[in-house]
Amino acid sequence: MNGLLIGRFQPFHFGHLEALHFALSKVENLWVGLGSSNKPIQKNNPFSAEERQKMIMSSIDDSSKEKIKIYFIPDFENHQKWVEHIDSIVPKFDVVFSNDEMTKYLYSKRQKQVLSIPFTKRDILSGTNIRDLIIQDLPWESLVPEGTKQFLNKINVKQRLENL
Fold first, then answer.
1. For range 45-67, the mean pLDDT
2. Is the bond preceding 139 in cis, omega lying within 30 degrees of 0?
């Protein structure tokens, strides 16, 4: 059975890692969709799809890498066309993992099984919070996996966020 998990991962953090593990516990293969892949780098989307892919792949173990394939999912203004476009990008899947109400609605309308992902420390583990901590020069490193931390430090994330 194949599953689909779509997220922005701006940046990839331990909550996202838990979501991947949850999804992988339910399916054999997981298609990870990097949402907003067509958006330019900006304040709320400071990392390109390629950079987010690197964060994820450098943060998961080898057994997970064998079961995960990453796809770039562009945004559409029309939700129905967005779902149809996803179907043209991603191989067949049986279940969608999402907490987004619109995504749940659209896929349940298409008779797809939709499972909610348990949130882990949502108040702390959010991309917005982590980006704010980085800008404020407050501790953030414990909120992201080692691979993500190394990647963010390598690209001088504080400088990038300040420039945006």
1. 97
2. no
Cα–Cα distance for residue pair 9/46, rounded to 1 Å = 10
CA nearest to 74, candidates 83, 66, 65: 83
125-161 burial, b for 16+ CB within 10 Å, e for fewer?
bbbebbbeebeeeeebeebbbebbbebbeeeebbebe
The beta-carbon contacts of 79-85 under 8 Å, at least 24 apart in sequence, are 79/106, 80/106, 83/107, 83/110
How far apart are alpha carbons 75 and 49 in whole angstroms?
Answer: 12
Nearest to 96 by CA among 38, 30, 35, 13: 30
Total of domains in the chain: 1
Eight-state DSSP code of residue 41? S
Domain boundaries, position 63: 2-163
88-145: per-residue pLDDT in tens? 999 999 999 999 898 899 998 888 999 999 988 888 999 999 999 999 999 999 999 9
Domain CATH code at residue 70: 3.40.50.620
Residue type, 22: F
User: How far apart are alpha carbons 13 and 54 in whole angstroms?
Assistant: 13
Answer whether 6's CB lies under 8 Å from 44's CB. no
